[in-house]
Amino acid sequence: MSVLSNSINSLESIWKDVLLVIQEGSFFDDVVYNTYFSNSSLHELDEHHALISVPTNMQKLVLSEYLEHISSSLEKAAGIKVAVDILLEGEITKVNNILFSPEETVIENKDTLLSTYTFDNFVVGESNNESHAAALACAMQPGKFYNPLFIFGNSGLGKTHLLHSIGNYAKKNESSLQVHYISSTDFVSEVVNSIKENRIDSFKKEMKNIDFLLVDDIQFLAGKEKSHEIFFQIFNDLVNNKKQIVLTSDRHPTEIKGLEERLISRFSSGLSVNLYSPEFDTSLQILKKKLEHQSVDPSLIDEDVLAYLATNFSSDVRKLEGALNRLIFYSINFSNSLRIDLRTAMIAFKGQTLITDRNDISISTIKKSVADYYGLTRQQLVSKSRTKMISNARHIAMFLCRKHLDVPFTKIGEEFGKRDHSTVMSACEKVEKSIISDNLLKQAIKEMENSFLLT
């Protein structure tokens, strides 16, 4: 077959026939067609590829999910079967010399790893640099530095990203490695099914042949006694044979209730590292990285808009990404301007609760309430002083942080003079017991709570 004419009239005619096939078919309804297909165009066509141009990023994202259907419609309308690519109108000039070059070889991933999660696209900042460094060290020298590596922190801070990054890096450097990523809930399901099908021994043997075991959300193993036993055996065998294990959880091993002591001991025997909410600069870099990934030109978004998002939605990376997606969606569908300014952002998020709302509770506000109540400074609360008044106030502040905030003991310890998590646990337990019999303490705590809950 000869290369098709790329004259504008020819391309317009072909694409008009393709759109007619799509519109008259039953695959998409009218509202979908009118929203995502009607203003698309065929920019280029040869024996191997068709390049479809669309004006908005949302159209690109949606149509990219239906490449096979578009290719099939093109075949029906023009009698040619080619691969289809979707690009934004603004991207056309950048890729004209690249798109139709020989295709890159795609390596099939059979390790249940997500290739989109790598160290290259993990944004490192003060909130996660320790975890990143430890993860990279394990990926470079499996089984030699920290085994197991235990990464913990609240949901949405990058634990899963780091797990997959470790696996992808290890496989890239040594393709023969047996890398296995699994969530703890899937592990439990595997154990249950293996027992039912009388193949538990082969399952354990299979797991023990793994070079790199990556287990996500290990806290969901709690309370599963039979799975505890199987995991304990696999864990010991892998560690004894210098195989690397990396675990993630939303809390420190010692804080996972319903987990056997011997597992807690094993999980704590390596290195435990914490992930925190991203600080402003890291949030800003994450936003720019997400824009790059979505092929959105950062220059189209005012710097103060990115600062607005980084300030108000940085409690975790998922919220940050969700806010960015919301902003892009709103600007594409409801804004007449090509640029996204602060006014557009304010309208897009009108009525939504922001994490920096003045009524939000933070460790800082709790420190202030307790310090004010006892006539102390916040510095005294985090100091090494062990005088009774300061010590009692510190314990109460720790207790209130644990009660009202979804933060682990280790995070609270960091905020109160880098104290060990066991010290925080002890302080919280002490206050909990004292409240039962001490009505004056109970009343004092109520007054402190009112000072930050009702302001």
Give the gist of this structure:
The chain is an alpha/beta fold. The chain is built from 21 helices and eight strands. The chain has helices at 8-24, 30-37, 57-63, 67-78, 92-95, 129-140, 159-173, 184-196, 200-208, 225-240, 261-268, 280-293, 303-312, 317-334, 342-348, 363-374, 378-382, 388-404, 409-415, 421-437, 439-453, and strands at residues 41-45, 49-54, 83-88, 149-152, 179-183, 212-216, 244-249, 271-274.
Walkthrough of the structure:
The protein is α/β, with parallel strands linked by helices and 455 residues long. The protein contains 21 helices and 8 strands. The chain has helices spanning 8-24, 30-37, 57-63, 67-78, 92-95, 129-140, 159-173, 184-196, 200-208, 225-240, 261-268, 280-293, 303-312, 317-334, 342-348, 363-374, 378-382, 388-404, 409-415, 421-437, 439-453, and strands at 41-45, 49-54, 83-88, 149-152, 179-183, 212-216, 244-249, 271-274. It has a 5-stranded parallel sheet with strand order 5-6-7-4-8, sandwiched between helices. A 3-stranded mixed sheet has the order 1-2-3. β1 and β2 (49-54) form a beta hairpin. α1 crosses α4, α12 (280-293) crosses α13 and α16 packs across α21 (439-453). It is globular and about 85 Å long. Mean pLDDT is 83; it is low at 1-5, 93-110 and 353-359.
Shape: globular
Can you identify the CATH superfamily of the largest domain? P-loop containing nucleotide triphosphate hydrolases
Which strand order do you get reading across the main beta sheet?
5-6-7-4-8
- The number of helical runs is 21
Name of the CATH class of the largest domain: Alpha Beta
What quaternary form is this? single chain
| Quantity of strands, as a count | 8
Helix content: 40-55%
- CATH topology name of the largest domain, in short, is Rossmann fold
Assign the structural class, choosing from mainly alpha, mainly beta, alpha/beta, alpha+beta, or little secondary structure. Answer: alpha/beta
Low-confidence stretches: 1-5, 93-110, 353-359
